[in-house]
Amino acid sequence: MRRLVPFAAALAAAPLVLTACVGGDDVPVKVTGEYGERPEVSFPKDTEPGDELVTSTLVTGKGAQVAKGDLVIASYAGYRWNDAGSRLIASSYAAGQPGAFPSGKLVPGLDRALIGQKTGSRVVAVIPPDQGYGSQGDARHQVGAHDSLVYVLDVLATYSKNAQAKGTAQPLEDPRLPKVAAAAPGRSPRVTVPRAAPPSTLQVRTLVQGSGPAVRSNQLTVLQFTGVLWRTGKEFYSTWSDGRPAGEVLGVGQDIKAFDEGLVGQKVGSRMLLVVPPKWGYGAKGLSHYGIKGDDTLIYVVDILGVH
To answer: What chemistry does it catalyse, as a reaction equation (predicted)?
Structure first.
């Protein structure tokens, strides 16, 4: 999918087999402030970060527990820390929008800090280099090979691979459009393409009507979706197959035009059918990595799970 990668997603890394200590009272930084508000983080003077992972749950939430493989939505402040001092490198509080963290695909220290936490929690993690970006560092965010990471995260929500639309089914009786059949939790809906020419304009239909808030532009939206080629009837991408929902910022040109036009204004809990001619998809260039040609019409079934 065409999208920009926020710093939260950039924390994804290949899994490593490492040892670590996880504690509660020995976090070497001081964090003040209320859950949901921008934290104040104080670093000790004349002290270098240690070589072990240290985490602490400053506020214990009472919501759903984060499992490996979930998409975690969290507000966060991230720092680089080394023997020369500390520096803020990313903050969702400043940006006014939380981040989407794909647990199980993050740098190892952040995965360990998040998995098992409950929504409503504030967590602080001091992550040594070998459980952060390792010897390669991360030049994009000016993180060096010997830099530790310090994160304060307010866990807002967590979404499992089985999350799906919850609402009232809306029958679709148009023979010119694909038929969509529900599948077992965690699996993509089944799409049957009609034996007909595809439509020449974007088609948006509600298959399940949700009752949650409407999606607004420039809002982090959590989606499950599958994409199918009209030409072959075969799936080219699916968040269900990928193992977790996706976090998308809609209405600002970060994704394909069909998502911006077809999903903004729809309600959380809905399942939407989008039939997408090239003009509303990937255009004349297509997207060869997914087998999409420049003249391909795409079919998306999209579950809107949440907005943040």
So the answer is: [protein]-peptidylproline (omega=180) = [protein]-peptidylproline (omega=0)
Cα dihedral 262→303→10→5 (10° resolution):
0
Single-letter amino acid, residue 3: R
Dihedral over Cα of 256, 257, 260, 262: its sign: negative
* pLDDT tens by residue, 58-116: 999 999 999 999 999 999 999 999 998 999 999 999 889 999 999 999 999 999 999 99
**CA distance linking residue 285 with residue 197, whole number of Å:** 21
Class of the CATH-defined domain 7-159: alpha beta
Global confidence as pTM: 0.90
- DSSP for residue 243: T
Q: Give the ranges where the chain is alpha helix by DSSP (H).
A: 7-10, 92-95, 108-114, 239-242, 257-263
End-to-end, the C-alpha distance of the chain in Å comes to 20
How far is the C-alpha of 252 from the C-alpha of 258, rounded, in Å?
12
- Show the low-confidence residues of the chain (pLDDT under 50): 2-6, 13-24
- Please say whether the beta carbons of 174 and 99 come within 8 A: no
Plot region of 74 (φ>0 → left; ψ -120 to 50 → alpha; else → beta): beta
Q: CA torsion sign, 185 to 187 to 193 to 199?
A: positive
Query: What does the alpha-carbon distance between residue 9 and residue 101 come to, in Å, rounded to a whole number?
Result: 6
Nearest of 234, 210, 232 to residue 223 by alpha carbon:
210
Q: Which fold has domain 168-307?
A: Chitinase A; domain 3 (3.10.50)
> Domain extents for the chain?
7-159, 168-307
